[in-house]
Amino acid sequence: MKKFLTLIFLCFITLSTYAQNFNFGGVSAEDYIFDRNKIDSTANAVVLREFGTAMMQFNDNNGRLELYFDHHVRIKIYNKEGFKEANIIIPLYKDANREETVSDLKASTFNYVDGNFIETAMDKKAVFNEERGKYTRLTKFTLPNLKEGSIIEYSYRLTSPNIFNFKTWEFQSDIPKVHSEYVVFIPGNYNYNVSLRGYQKLTDQKSEISKECLRVGGAAVDCSKIMYLMKNVPAFIEEDNMTAASNFKSAIYFELSDVQHFNGSKTSYTKTWKDVDYEIVSDRNIGDQMKRKDLFKDLILNLTKNATTDLDKAKAIYDYIKKQIKWNNYYGKYSEEGIKKALDLRSGNVADINLSLIAALSAANLDAEAVILSTRENGTVNKLYPVISDFNYLVAKVNIGDKSYMLDASEPLLPFGLLPLRCINDQGRVINLKKPSYWIDLKADQKSIINYILIGKLNADGKVTGTITTHSLGYAAFNKRKEIKKYNSTDEYVEKLDERLNKMKILNFKINNIDSTENTLTEIYDVEFTMFDELKDQFYFSPFLVNTISKNPFNLNQRTYPVDLGTTSDERIIIKISLPAHYELLEKPKDLAIGLPNSGGKYLLQTTLEEDIISLSQILQFNKAIYEPEEYLYLKEFYSKIIQNQKTELLLKKAK
C-alpha cells in the first residue's frame, strides 16, 4: 500500500508538546519488566523507544548544505535469539568526492543486578568500517555484556551530503516496536514529495513552523517541522519469494521536488520523462554509448555471415558479446568508462556489456533499444514522476518483426530472450534514441521446468539401484548450469553433490548440454539408495525418493506483501521401482488432486503397485508468477497437504 503526500509549506499553529527525544541511559523498571505479550508474545527482542531527527545545516568548511540525521534506539532483549539485535550495521554512501560519516556514537548495555541497573559502555575500539562496494561503506559495532533480559541502547549522528533523498525512516524492522517517532525540519524553500509506504498506518502526524532553523549566507530560513509517529508496530518478517523488503515495510520516503533560491530563481528536480529522455540520450555514459556502432562495423559481416534471418543475426551478436566481455559483478545503468574500454579490457559492468550489445545490434541494422530497470532487491521504481536514482540496471531490447526480445549478455549461461530473475521486477523504462521512452512489463518469458525420471530396482539386500534422469529447461536449466559452473569440472560438481545427498550414492554420471543454452540440460545419474539393512517379509517403503517436500515455505499467519516467484513453474516426477518378489500393497499415500483458486496451480499424485512395480507420478505446477497477500493462506494450506501426505509410506507384505 502506498500513500502519497505533497508537502505544502503553510503556517501551522505552533505545537510544543511532542517530538521529544529520551535521555540516554534513562532506563527504568518499566523498561525492564515490559511485557512483550502486549505487542508480540513470540518476539525475541522489542524496540521500546526509537527517536530520530533530520535537519539541514550549512557547513562553513566546505560551503555546502548537509543533512544531519540523529538516531536513538532502546531495545529490550528477551532471549539469546534476540542477541543478534545487538549487532548494528549503519550503511553509508560514498563516491569519489563526497561521503557520509558517523559521529557522536554512544552504545551501552544495561543489566539489572541486585536491584540496580549496571551500565556497560561499548569500547570505541569495537567500532569498525567495512568497504562493501564502490558506493557503500558499512559502520559496524556490537554491544557488550549481553544477557537474557538486557536492555541495549545506542545513538549516533549521520552527516550526509545527499539532500535529494531526505533521510528515509523505517518504522518497521525485524522486531516489533512500541514507539517509533521521526521529526524532520525541512527549509521552507525546499519542497519534497513524501510517500508513506507499507501496510501500517501512522498513529499521529503533526506539523509546526520552526523559526530560523537554518542560516545560509547570512539569511535566516524558517522550517516546516513535521513529526511522524507510529506505535505498536508489528515486526516485518521476511519470507522467501519476495522482492525488496523496502517495497513493503512501513516507512516514510522523501524525494526533492524543487528549490526556491534566494535570488528568486527556482530549480526543479521533479522532471517529465521528456526532459529525462533528452538527458539520457545525451548522456555520454548511456546515449552516447548506444550510438557507438562504429566499434562493430568491421565485425558484423563476419559475425553474421551464416545468419539467414534477423533473429539469427541477433543471436549471433548476443553470443559474441557474452563471450567478449566478462561481467565484473557490478550493476549499473551507466557505462563506467565507455564501451570501447570495456571491449579492450574484455571486462565491464552490466551497462558496459549491454550497451555494447545494443551498439552491435544497431550496427547490424537491427532495431535495438535500452531498458533501464530496478532489480528485485533494489525495490520498485516511482511511477508518478521520473526518479533516475531508482534505476540500477540496464538491459537490451531488440525488436524483430512483430516480436521483442529482452537480453542481458552479462550472464553467459542465459539463453537468448531470457532475463535473469533479478531483473523480473514490475516494469522497466525503454530508452530509444529517436522516440519517447515508455514503460514495459518485466515478465519471465519462460517457465522453470524440471522433470525427474527414476527407474530402479529394490534388491534383496535392502538397496535400490537405478538411474535418475533429470531434464531442465528455462530458469531451472539456467540455475543448474550456474551451479555446475561454480566448480572446476563436472567431476568436482558431482563429487560435491554426492557428499550432500542423504542415503544416496552416485555411481556414475553423464551431463549433456551444459554450454548449449538453447537446448535441454540433461543429467543422468546411476545411483544407489540404502533403504534397509535387510529386506523383510513386511516393510514400509517411502516412494518419495526424489525432491521430497519436507518444509513449508509459508509459515506466517498473515502475509501483507505478495508471494513473488518471479516465474511460473512445472515440476514432474516419475518413479518406477521393481520389487525382488511378489508383494501385496496394504497401505499407501493418498492419491491427491488439489488445486489453488483461480487455476493458480495444482498438485497431482498417484502411487500404484502393479506387476511387482511401484509407480509414482507427481506433478507440481504454479501457474502464476505473483500471488497476492489474500492468496497466501491458500498457498500455505496447499503445501501443508502435500507435506502431510508425503509423510505416509507404502506398507508392503510378501505374498504367499
UniProtKB/TrEMBL annotation:
Signal peptide: 1-19
Keywords: Signal
InterPro entries documented for this protein: DUF3857, Papain-like_cys_pep_sf, Transglutaminase-like
Entries under Pfam families matching the protein: DUF3857, Transglut_core
Residue ranges constituting the DUF3857 domain according to the UniProt record: 69-207
Domain of life: Bacteria
Keyword Signal in annotation: yes
Domain Transglutaminase-like span(s) in chain numbering: 300-380
Protein name, entry field: DUF3857 domain-containing protein
